[in-house]
Specification:
Elements lengths: L1 E6 L6 H17 L2 E5 L10 H7 L6 H13 L2 E3 L4 E5 L2 E9 L5 E6 L5 E4 L3 E4 L12 E3 L4 E4 L8 H9 L2 E7 L6 H17 L2 E5 L16 E3 L5 E4 L5 E6 L2 H10 L18
Parallel strand pairs: 1-2, 2-3, 10-11, 11-12
Antiparallel strand pairs: 1-15, 3-5, 4-5, 5-6, 7-8, 9-10, 12-13, 13-14
Helix pairs in contact: 1-3
Family: Belongs to the carbon-nitrogen hydrolase superfamily. NIT1/NIT2 family.
Keywords: Hydrolase
GO molecular function: omega-amidase activity
Length: 273
Amino acid sequence: FRLALIQLHVSAVKSDNLQRACGLVREASAKGAKVVALPECFNSPYGTQYFKEYAENIPGESTQKLSEVAKECSIYLVGGRSIPEEDGGKLYNTCTVFGPDGAVVAKHRKVHLFDINIPGKIQFKESETLSPGNSFSMFDTPYCKVGLGICYDLRFAEMAQIYEQKGCQLLIYPGAFNLTTGPAHWELLQRGRAVDNQVYVATVSPARDEKASYVAWGHSTAVNPWGEVIAKAGAEETVIYADIDLKKLAEIRQQIPILSQKRCDLYGIEMKK
């Protein structure tokens, strides 16, 4: 099946972001995509100073638009970090997924918050405004089972291993690495997650805006279970496509059967919630 990754240029005007995102979703569907993914923070600028201002409840304005376009196009739509979600007085970095009937099939709240301090380069602390999610998020399609993470979640190998154990063959991470971490680790982490678990891994970033307070790396990417990059964007707004070949995935797992050869008598990864 065909996967589309929409690397959207995000402005400060929510209505414009929503309109352009829905237009690109329709374009991707017209080109045969059955699963379409939007980037992290697609309806607002990325930054702790913006989260409260742009926050919505779920359901709300942004998720309603995504539901409508998913149903119109009869696709699975991964809504990036569609919105900073407000719930019970807390804010979450939340990704909603909609099925071909427009219904919500998954909602992932970012588990690992991005709190870093690289002297002389970048300091950022999501926990100043956001609360972490506390669960794994998976959804079934007629094609395969899909696991979800958001941005910083990509760095935690245990999370991807749990998804593989639960039968996921594709992992999707809406994300917004910056100009320091992006060139260093963005592709490296994706290829690592793909090879370790013999799954497809896709990451979808906002397009780069040099004038933004937080500048995203871009380079939305799809990697196959052999660790090969099969689709990759540059920095500009674009839509890239990857054909997910589950027969190839099965062949790779048969050729190098690491998943059945793990020494579970010596070690293991456990999902607690």
